[in-house]
Amino acid sequence: MHIDVVQKVMKLNDELAAGVRERLRAANVAAVNLISAPGSGKTSLIECALRSVDGRVRVGVLEGDPDTTLDAERVAACGVPVVQIQTAGGCHLEAHLVARALDRLPLDDIDLLVVENVGNLVCPVDFDLGESARAAIVSVAEGHDKPAKYPKLFRTTDTVVLNKIDLLPYVDFDETKFMEYVRCINPRARILRTSCRSGDGVAAWTDWLASIAARTAQAPAT
Amino acid sequence: MHELAIVKRILDLALDVSRENGALPIARVAVDVGALQNVVPEMMSFAFTAISVGTDAEGAEFDWTEVPAEVVCESCEAMFRPEAPMWTCPECGAGGGRVVRGDELVLRSVTLRE
Lengths: 222, 114
Fold this sequence. Notes:
The structure holds 2 protein chains of 2 kinds.
Chain A: E1 2-8, H1 11-26, E2 30-36, H2 42-52, E3 59-65, H3 70-76, E4 82-86, H4 95-102, E5 112-116, E6 133-139, H5 146-149, H6 151-155, E7 159-163, H7 175-185, E8 190-193, H8 202-218
Parallel strand pairs in A: 2-5, 2-6, 3-4, 3-5, 6-7, 7-8
Chain B: H1 3-20, E1 26-34, H2 41-51, E2 61-67, E3 70-72, E4 79-80, E5 98-101, E6 105-112
Parallel strand pairs in B: 1-2
Antiparallel strand pairs in B: 1-6, 3-4, 3-5
Helix pairs in contact in B: 1-2
């Protein structure tokens, strides 16, 4: 017996992500999904933003990792609410994990939820988490060819953060080529250059996060 | 290896279809995989065989069809099939583009054994 189905395989995740989005919207919370390779500096960028945000935006954080609570401990030390999601080896966050984690966050007391995905340039890309914006983070030590090798991430992101720019003198990173790749794959993407060590670009990075929260706060209720 | 998570969804959807139709065992699932999906169909097929053991889909054929990518240029509206990861419009040379086809991941049909 042949049965036509024609159903999106990601339907369940997409529905759960829509639920997360609706719950966040009702609480006036914006969400940013940070996707990068392991070690690109996601947690450091979060720490820098928390130090420089200066009360403009109240931030909560979800940390996704295969194991440990190390990142959540770092973020908690900055004095903001944080929940660690341990994926037990899983290579990406899914909407149901975020939905469950929201129960453990004081949504009424935050304006912006920063979701640090599991370090991985492939798997997290296909899973909508209910975010309002997505940032792809690349550190210069990873090489300038990453946008060409992982185009789907760069195609689906709002902002590209080139991190660890203080290391540029020490690595063979062709920044012109990197920018060309990003522009060709996603002409609309905002590109930020940052270094958590020197502090370069941290203000612009923090401003971008704050602008996501402000955009959500101004959005009319539907 | 997010193929496993995706294949689990396909298996669940197929088992739902089986249950809705007299719990007949599944002979075949047919899936459309867009060329722009970050998945390896051969890996999905392997994962499907592994996780369907002990279910009504055990031994079922995992039949996948690749859907080629089609993109429309946002500058000149030309439709083209990108072959490289970098999308350059063959008409006007602009980068980027809007996906028209190739992003789908769809369970097309399920065949049950009678």
